[in-house]
Amino acid sequence: MIRELLFEDIDGGFTADPETVIDAAAADPRYLARVPGLRAVLADAATGRYHRFLAVQALASWGHAPVYPVVEATAEAGRRSPWLGMLTDHDGRDRTFPELAAAVAEGRRFTIPNGGEEARIAALTALVGLGDELFFDWQLAYAADEPAVADALATTVDRGVDRSDEADFDRVLQLADLCAVLARHDRPRAVELAERLLRKDFRLTVRTHLCSVVPFRA
CA gyration radius for the chain? Predict the structure, then answer.
């Protein structure tokens, strides 16, 4: 079933990358007729975890409100999520949560006109809460550029800047990106947090990522 749902275009042509189909729905709403099939895939415990994840990714990207509690629960599980590590990049870094963040971001184009925005924001807030814990690449900052999650951004950066445990990603740099997003919606808090980050880590890359929040100092 998953082949017809996410590995074939609207004309039945095969595509090796399911994101091609997922992205195509933004321009062609006929893809949304596949939502019931994807819900069935997600509900079928016998389906492999990768295909179930693809169903979550597609449904979240297409603004299907009932899937956002699944995303929220996945975020709350964090490192205990059974999906963690399922998708990795060439450096072995997890891509599961970055892809979920991107999917929730893309879902906005559907939830704003059709409903489901409250559930989407709840899922996004839960993902933002992992910003100091898990690697998100650029996708979390992209997704979190919304006033509704400004408080969650501030809380995550505030907590993260004081953490002293080792991370398996560049935590300060990721927090700097989140701080830069926060500055678009709550500049006073962002400036205070940026200054704290810089007191902790004055690397050129961190200063560069925060240059839109505080003046760049050589």
Answer: 18
Apex 131 CA angle, 18 and 177, nearest 5: 90
Supply the pTM of this predicted model.
0.95
Helix/strand/coil for 115 = coil
- Pseudo-torsion of CA 210, 212, 213, 218, nearest 10°? 60
Query: How far is the C-alpha of 34 from the C-alpha of 43, rounded, in Å?
Result: 14
Whether the Cβ atoms of residue 136 and residue 177 lie closer than 8 Å to each other:
no
Q: 128 has which bridge partners?
A: none
Task: Summarize pLDDT for 58-93 with one digit per residue, the tens.
Answer: 999 999 999 999 999 999 999 999 999 888 988 888
Angle between the 68-77 and 117-128 helix axes, to the nearest 10 degrees?
10
Q: What are the sequence ranges of the domains in the chain?
A: 1-136, 145-218
Place of tokens 């389906």: 47
| Amino acid at position 72, single letter | E
* Sequence-separated (6 or more) residues with CB below 8 Å from residue 26: 106, 109
Q: Which of helix, strand or coil describes residue 14?
A: strand
Cα separation of 131 and 138, whole Å? 11
Whether residue 83 contacts residue 49, with contact meaning beta carbons closer than 8 Å, is answered with yes
